[in-house]
# Entry
Amino acid sequence: MTRESLWLIIGFAGQVVFTGRFVLQWLYSEIKRRSLIPVGFWYLSILGSALLLAYAIYRQDPVFIIGQSFGFLVYLRNLQLIARHPQQKE
# Structure
């Protein structure tokens, strides 16, 4: 496996994980019969963002790096807020 192939796998894995968070949120909301964001959404967000950020750094894409960096911080902050108030978990 070449270095480029490995990074393509990382990039695609990040995209799959990132997309999976929307599927999780949609199915969770359908089960609960109301719009909700489960904690797993934030874990998938941060994992997908981290993988995509690593890929963006490898590709040296400043637009992608800035976008994923900001998202990563937002997802991390949401997990911190959830940890502070565990009784509010859905």
